[in-house]
Amino acid sequence: MSSKLTFKLGIHPINWVGEDVREHGADTTYRTILDDIRRLGLTGTEMGRKYPQDRALLRQELDSRGIRLVSQWKSVLLSAPEYRERELAAYREHCAFLRDMGAEVVSTAEVGGSLHFDPRRTPNEKVVQRLDDLGWQSLAEGLNEAGKIAAEYGLKLTYHHHGGTVVESPEEIDRLLEMTDPSLVWLLYDTGHALYGGADPLAVLRKHYDRIGYVHLKDVRLSVLAEARAEQADFVTCIRKGVFTVPGDGDIDFPPILAELSVRGYAGWAMLEGEQDPAEHPPYEYALRSLQFIRQHA
């Protein structure tokens, strides 16, 4: 990897197996994913739904390939106070697992109001239900509590601003960070979701760098996004249409982003992501080209 990079590069299994679109990579095995990651020369991954749930087996499969588990997504429903106790108990269990696996961060996202996660919503609803002031206050208080739990286990809570959720736009990112404790709640900076949510990814990076604890490098095909917006497509439909891809294959200007991370001395993990149909976009080939792109332009 280029000596200009100060940070560690890993890759998310979502390139091989969809999380939101379950048919993407449905027949792919975890061994295929991990073997490809090793062939790419990368040493970090996030937990994926195809990976072994048994801790001993997962550790064995990772260790045998020189790969470490860096993080795992954790959905939370903290905007509704009545869910907080249950959600924080589940969060503690999640952190215990990640600590045992040697992870560093917890990728955390609020699902209240979301179409594809909120258990209180029905399949026929079409729009994200934005939070009111009470919902925001409950979310911020709950995240601070979850951040304390993460710290107990030697982890950082990194909040994942995410398309199709209530923390999606640049204004919502700003509000979340203003309302939470900077010593407890960090930002998972995602280039693709920043653009999807209406922000300039470089501007988000520069504005909130001091809160960034983890990075996802994801690209966006602007022509596909424009078509999806015209059709008023929801987030999951956007994935099916191919809005997202790996860095260098879409329209985000990555060299200034990579330079900013390196100049600032970011030393954490950055995960390559390209949430798209692996049958149409072979994950290993796309990841290899993306790594070459990063080496060339970093």
Automatic annotation (TrEMBL):
InterPro entries: IolE/MocC, IolE/XylAMocC-like, Xyl_isomerase-like_sf, Xyl_isomerase-like_TIM-brl. Residues 35-296 form the Xylose isomerase-like TIM barrel domain. It comes from the Bacteria. Its EC number is 4.2.1.44. GO terms for molecular function: myo-inosose-2 dehydratase activity. SUPFAM superfamilies: Xylose isomerase-like. Pfam families: AP_endonuc_2 (PF01261). Keywords: Lyase. PANTHER family: HYDROXYPYRUVATE ISOMERASE, INOSOSE DEHYDRATASE. This is Myo-inosose-2 dehydratase.
